[in-house]
Amino acid sequence: MKKLPLLFFILFMTIAAEAQVQVRMGVQASPIFTVNRVQSFSDTLNLTPDGARLRMMAGPVFDFMLRENYYFSTGILYAPKVVGFNASFENNTRKFDEQYVLQYLRVPLTFRLFTNEISLDNRLYVQVGLTADIKIYEEADSRDAFLVNDFTILDGTALIGIGLEHRIGYNTSLFAGFSYSRGLVNTVSNHLNLDDDIKSRNDIFSLDLGIFF
Fold it and tell me: Nearest to residue 51, comparing CAs of 131, 133, 151, 136?
């Protein structure tokens, strides 16, 4: 499963080369704020989220030109996430906190739509689409953690973003923007035996900085 993003890009680059599609390659580094949303209707367990952390997401990105100002945008990004719970049993008589560190390879499947130049060498863009996230690592912050035994290998989000691109050379441009990824998948696959399921979905708020060359 960990080889899927690499195979995806090899296939995509081969198709693009055969079709003579214009491809922009770049690097993105994004300070992110990762949070999780939780849900449980158990009669014995009360849950609230406690997974807000600052992290860094980074990796290569690729824009495939579909037509002028319209691109299919993808990449392979290292995307860390943190899942946390504030929990209590039996009418708050026992309280505890748990955090889990998750690491993913993120493959954006998005469209980047540009305006015409709003000033010399500057244009705005909107990015919308989905992401496919493949888990490569998970670990509990504490050895005493017992609430979740395992997380799903796949996660997925809906992504929307906005930003500015500034051209600094014939084939070189800088970009900066903000994006929000809203988790669509319950990532808890195996948890403590309760009278109801524990559900957690991961969201990311991101400051996207990068360069195309």
Answer: 151
